[in-house]
Amino acid sequence: MLTSKVAKRYAQGLLDFTKESGQTDAVFAEMKDVVKLMSESKDLNKFFLTPYIDANKKTEVANEIFKSFSPVSQNLIRLIIKNGRESQLKNVAQQFINKVEDINGIQRITLTTATQLSNENIEQILKSTNLVNASANFDIKVNVNPAILGGYILRVGDQQIDASVKSQLNKIKKDFQLN
User: Fold this and answer.
1) What is the distance between the alpha carbons of residues 170 and 175, in angstroms, rounded to a whole number?
2) Are 50 and 90 members of one domain?
3) Are residues 158 and 146 in the same domain?
4) Distance between CA 60 and CA 82 in Å, rounded?
5) Are residues 98 and 109 part of one domain?
6) Which of 14, 32, 90, 110 lies most in the core, judged by the most C-beta atoms within 10 Å?
7) Are residues 10 and 91 in the same domain?
8) Which domain holds residue 71?
9) What is residue 131's predicted lDDT score, i.e. its pLDDT?
10) Can you give the pTM of this predicted structure?
11) Considering 86, 102, 118, which residue would you say is the last residue of a domain?
12) Three-class secondary structure assignment of 39-68
C-alpha cells in the first residue's frame, strides 16, 4: 500500500519534534495504540471519514478517546483533524512507527501463509533465506491467507520471496499458454 506524502510529512515532523524533546519512546508506544485502535474499530474510521461531521465534534471525540496520551500525541491528533486530514491518522501513526523502527535498525517482516504455522516453522522459514539479517532485531507480522493454497510469501522491507503454491501454479499456467 502506498503511503501519502501527507502522512510521511506529518510523521517526519513528529519524529523531529520528539527527538528534540526526548519523547520518542512514549509517542512511539502511543502511535502503536493509534494504529491498533484504527485497525480494530470500523466505527471510529467511519466517524472520522464522515464529511458532514464538523472538525470540532471530531476533535471532542478524539480528545475523549486519546485522553490518556501525552500532550505531544494529543496535539498531533488535533492538528491532523483541524487540517482535515483525519483520513490519514492511521497512516501518519504507521509512518512514525516505521521511521522509529528504521532508526533503531528493526527489520519489518511480513510472512503470509495458507494456514497458521508454529513458531518453529516460522523460525525455519526465516533461517532458510538470506533476506533476514540474523543479528538484527525484527518485527514479524504473520498473515493467514488460504487463497495462496500452500507455501509462503515472505516480505522483508522492499524485497519479497513468493514460494506460494498459487504463484507456482500461475507460472505453470503461463508457461503452458506460451508453448
Assistant:
1) 9
2) yes
3) yes
4) 11
5) no
6) 14
7) yes
8) 5-102
9) 78
10) 0.73
11) 102
12) HHCHHHHHHHHCCCCCHHHHHHHHHHHCCC
